[in-house]
UniProtKB/TrEMBL annotation:
Family statement drawn from the similarity comment of this UniProt entry: Belongs to the PlsX family.
Pathway(s) per entry: Lipid metabolism; phospholipid metabolism
GO molecular function: phosphate:acyl-[acyl carrier protein] acyltransferase activity
Name the UniProt record assigns to this protein: Phosphate acyltransferase
Tagged with keyword Acyltransferase: yes
UniProt GO BP: fatty acid biosynthetic process; phospholipid biosynthetic process
Length: 330
């Protein structure tokens, strides 16, 4: 399999991308890793004898975090992100990964790679950690700020296929993000979507409140991108604040420092279970190729996690399964 990596996108690019590729190349020699970016910058980072399964495709432009997404994709046609997307479109790569500008990656998915037939709007689908370590797939987390009820149904179906194919879950459960669990709760979007989801060929378990997401009330949770992105940022912010508070309290006195030393292994386990690095790599479901978004602050370990998840999606024929499902609805 061939995975194109936008080596210039992200807060820690290109070092995190190169180091993760080197580590992944050693662990998965059957995977061809293609670093897309400025060859003069990337070549020295690979060393004098890079692994045989790592190559470079030169791209001398970069889409920055402040660039307007659509304009950047149309004007910077030789940027690392656009070139990687074009490789997927033309069949020169089985997937692409980028930790760069999220809006620009959405534009690459739509304008360069293209939508799958039968899909109205692709959705960004990251995994959330859950207390039982199973995780929940959430979409849409920001690809589209607005959505119609039928879009949420498509998200539910795509999410179900993803969890079945990539994670091996049989008949995954699907929930609808809402302000209450009762069927009549919510705004017009969620009320209409609730009725449609009940009729869809999925295992729909009803409304799920945001406070229950990490409790693993369902395997897939669907919502519009505006609500989903707020939920994502709220959970990340709350987790970060809690760890900061714990650190402050545990360092506040000699007795608490001694207690912290005893509890340190346990705290490390908790942090690892809730660390986004362990779940990095959100596919843009609904485009006609595997496009994966890494967190903007992805380090070497997070990028390697994204590569691992991308390999699993390729191995299990995710895009083919999605195409077959939605072609039947055309």
């Amino acid at each position: 399999m061939r995975i194109a990596i936008d080596a210039m996108g992200g807060d820690h690019a290109p070092h995190a991308q190169v180091r993760s590729a080197l580590a992944a190349a050693a662990d998965w020699p059957d995977t061809q890793l293609i670093l897309v970016g400025n060859q003069e910058v990337l070549s020295p980072l690979l060393g004098t004898e890079p692994p045989a399964n790592i190559s470079i495709v030169h791209a001398d432009e970069v889409i920055g975090s402040d660039d307007e997404p659509v304009r950047a994709v149309r004007r910077k046609t030789n940027s690392s992100m656009v070139v990687a997307g074009r490789m997927v479109k033309e069949g020169n790569a089985d997937a692409m990964i980028s930790a760069g500008n999220t809006g620009a990656l959405m534009a690459v998915g739509l304008l360069v790679v293209g939508r799958l037939p039968g899909i109205d709007r692709p959705g960004l689908a990251p995994m959330f950690p859950t207390l039982d370590n199973v995780g929940v797939l959430a979409l849409d987390m920001g690809a589209n700020m607005d959505a119609k009820p039928e879009h949420l149904v498509q998200y539910a179906m795509m999410g179900s296929i993803y969890r079945e194919k990539v994670h091996g879950l049989r008949n995954p459960s699907v929930g609808l993000l809402n302000v209450g669990t009762e069927a009549a709760k919510g705004n017009e979007l969620t009320k209409e979507a609730f009725d449609l989801l009940q009729q869809a060929p999925i295992h729909f378990v009803g409304n799920i409140e945001a406070r229950d997401v990490l409790e693993h009330k369902c395997d897939v949770i669907v919502c519009d991108g505006f609500s989903g992105n707020i939920m994502l940022k709220s959970i990340e912010g709350a987790a970060s604040a809690i760890f900061k508070l714990l650190k402050e309290e545990l360092m506040s006195s000699w007795s608490s420092k001694l207690a912290a030393a005893v509890m340190k292994p346990g705290f490390r386990k908790v942090k690892k279970r809730m660390d986004y690095n362990e779940y990095n790599g959100a596919p843009l479901l609904g485009v006609n190729g595997l496009v994966v978004k890494g967190h903007g602050s992805s380090d070497e370990n997070a990028m390697k996690t994204a590569i691992r998840h991308t390999r699993a999606a390729i191995d299990n024929g995710l895009i083919t399964a999605l195409a077959e499902e939605f072609s039947r609805k055309e």
